[in-house]
Amino acid sequence: PPIYAITPTYSRPVQKAELTRLANTFRQVARLHWVLVEDAARRSELVSRFVARAGLPCTHLHVPTPRRYKRPGLPRATEQRNAGLAWVRQRHQYLPPPPQPGVLFFADDDNTYSLELFEEMRTTRRVSVWPVGLVGGRRYERPIVENGKVIGWYTGWRADRPFAVDMAGFAVSLQVILSNPKAVFKRRGSQPGMQESDFLKQITTVEELEPKANNCTKVLVWHTRTEKVNLGNEPKYHLDTVKIEV
Ligand code: UGA
Ligand code: MN
Fold it and tell me: What is the pTM of this model?
């Protein structure tokens, strides 16, 4: 089955480096379709050029985050993930009725994904979960599994979350996405870190989750974050003599 990876992305000095790293991973995954959603009012030249040369199936969308939501402490990329969901739903609207095979997951542009992760998520029947490294103030967070079922969460942060899992810690089958057409990420009432729970609540229950990565004992994805780059030595005026593609 195909894997849809929905990636929100926004313009900043490290953007092309992040996308390059991500494409180098995704290119090695069979039948992966990349849904890249720019947080912008229009498609940027940089990302358009990048997508054209990425060497993998890619859909390039864009939607700007309303200015009032661009504030520290508010969840990021809500509108972009919803745009990706809407595109996937529309694409499958006119295909024969379910079950249509396929898996969808939300791949932030700065995380680190092992190739094994994709083989694990490919067998998702409804909603699957696995550990995420370097998140929640710990070396990893993970679903706690007993007799093949998720019974709780090992987490350092807000253990009261119904699904204490990062965006990088779950995948959803296409069938579940299509049969819950109203399931979306919500701005209203969603605090940062609660987006995952608020979304998962709409489509599944903890009892129903499918643990992957050897009963959630292997970290196959890391919530890495890229250091903010120091451009303190950029010249005030353009000094270079030729135009550089950065
Ligand atoms: C954590 C979670 O891992 C994210 O899934 C969650 O969206 C985020 O918190 C949140 O606060 O909502 P974190 O590393 O803090 O992630 O967030 P970023 O990696 O900075 O952003 C998540 C994604 O949104 C990235 O793909 C990034 O490119 C994108 N983004 C970020 C935008 O599209 N627009 C922005 O203004 C900021
Ligand atoms: Mn991140």
Answer: 0.97
